[in-house]
Amino acid sequence: MTSLVVNVKYPPIPLVGAKGDGTIDDTVTIQNIINYAQSLNPGAVLYSNGSNSTLLGIRLYFPMGVYKITAPLIINATNKTQTSDASNTIVGIELTGDGITSTIIDSTSAMSGESISILGGFTKVSDMQILNSKGSGIVSNQ
Q1: Residue 52, class by beta-carbon neighbours within 10 Å (0-12 exposed, 13-18 middle, 19+ buried)?
Q2: Distance between CA atoms of 122 and 124, rounded to whole angstroms?
Q3: The domain containing residue 80 runs over which residues?
Q4: Which residues of 28-42 are buried (b: 16+ CB within 10 A; e: fewer)?
Q5: Cα distance between residue 57 and residue 4, in whole Å
Q6: What angle is formed at CA 22 by the lines to CA 14 and CA 6, rounded to 5 degrees?
């Protein structure tokens, strides 16, 4: 088994996809997709046996583009874990892009605070760049 992948530009119907063109405000669209992912993923479960791991969770894939946001993206992931090796990383929701020069989350200059706020659970953000955030870009209240 593997993670379920949701492409933020082409999410399942009836969700609307993000534009990622650097001009259109993608905040509400991306937040709706995050909320959808959270509704499908009441808890990620990782079964681990040394180097063999199975992750059940949600991956939000951000294809190449500049995603303009005007308010923080809120992630409230809950997780269940079952591991035999405490060194493994357990992920409930993952936000991943095409690389730090290809996928950009661009906070507007009028936005205050962090671009992504994680309010619980395990979340991974990778292969993307966060621009113009007033803080560190990501705040975690786990």
Answers
A1: exposed
A2: 7
A3: 4-140
A4: ebbbbbbebbbeebe
A5: 6
A6: 35
| 26 vs 106: CA distance, rounded Å | 10
Question: Is the bond into 12 cis (omega within 30 degrees of 0)?
Answer: no
Output the pTM of the full model: 0.79
Tally the domains of the chain: 1
Q: What are the start-end ranges of the H helices in the chain?
A: 27-40
pLDDT tens track for 32-74: 999 888 777 545 444 444 554 555 568 899 999 999 999 989 8
**CA 7, CA 64: separation in Å to the nearest integer?**
11
β-strands 4-7, 73-75 pairing? unpaired
